[in-house]
Amino acid sequence: MQLLNKIDEMIFNPELKNNVIAITGGGGKTTTMIALGEFYKTKGYSVLLSTTTKVQSPRFFDFKVDYIFFEECDFFMHEPVKGESVVFVEQHIMNPKKSLAPRDEILPLISKKYDVTILEADGARCLPLKKHRACDPVIPKNVTSVIAIAGMSSFNHSAANFCMGEDDMSLVVDKNYLQLLIDSSEGLLKRIESYHKSIILFNQSDLINTKDIEILKNIKSSSPIILGSIKENKVY
Fold first, then answer.
1. Of 5, 46, 74, 102, which cross-links 80 as Cys (Cβ 3.0–4.6 Å)?
2. How far apart are CA 177 and CA 186, in angstroms?
3. Is the peptide bond before 128 cis (omega within 30 degrees of 0)?
4. CA–CA distance from 206 to each of 54, 152, 187, 228, 236 (Å)?
């Protein structure tokens, strides 16, 4: 099975009028958001891409959508169409290459306009792993499912160099480290609730060997773990 089909099977609820998907962690959040946006657009849904924190600016980054909105009035005047995707973010005054989340007050309103809303809900400074801070991740109450991502480009490398928030230079990203990252209160599953349809995606699994993939399959989690590659759209 292709990875996007597998993710859809595990997180999407066809009985809901509005599915709201939050993506947390590191190692491919934006790429996953774009890929899922295209996937649901192809299936005939109206799709909204946005963020609850910061994201690449669509002025400089291709989100592969039909429309880009920076202003609330323009967004709300636009009527969603089946099989259409849009991105709605606010411009970052200090950093033109980044965009900010819409106001908290309107996040529930904007997601009600679209069949599928996909939110980048975390920041990892381009690193594949993350130990959360007190304020992270930012998952609104109307979120229906969560994809927590860990990038396997980190595997067998220094945790301090590949995990945001890790200071211990002696640690290496291995099975035990990833298990601790799952079990930690500030780890991958932070703010995932029992009502969320949630998964952990070990993305970039195309970068590790078969032996290591089999080792990682033994990691335990309350949320199902998928080893895959968004780039290759493949499950391992």
1. 46
2. 13
3. no
4. 27, 8, 23, 7, 8
Structure-token pair, residue 55: 């994201």
In a 13 Å sphere around the CA of 69, the CA atoms on its Cβ side amount to 21
192 in Cβ contact with 223 (< 8 Å): yes
CATH architecture of 3-235: 3-Layer(aba) Sandwich (3.40)
Q: What is the residue-averaged pLDDT of the chain?
A: 96
Q: In the predicted model, is pLDDT for residue 1 greater than 90?
A: no
**pLDDT tens, residue by residue, 46-65:** 999 999 999 999 999 999 99
Domain ranges of the chain: 3-235
- Cα gap 158→166, rounded to integer Å: 10
Can you count the helices (H) and strands (E) in the chain? 7, 14
The strand pairing partners of 117, in sequence order, are 20, 48
| DSSP 8-state assignment for residue 214 | H
Helix or strand (DSSP H, E) at 49:
strand 47-51
Angle, helix 3-11 to helix 29-42, in steps of 10 degrees: 80
Helix (H, G, I), strand (E, B) or coil at 22: strand
pTM of the model: 0.96
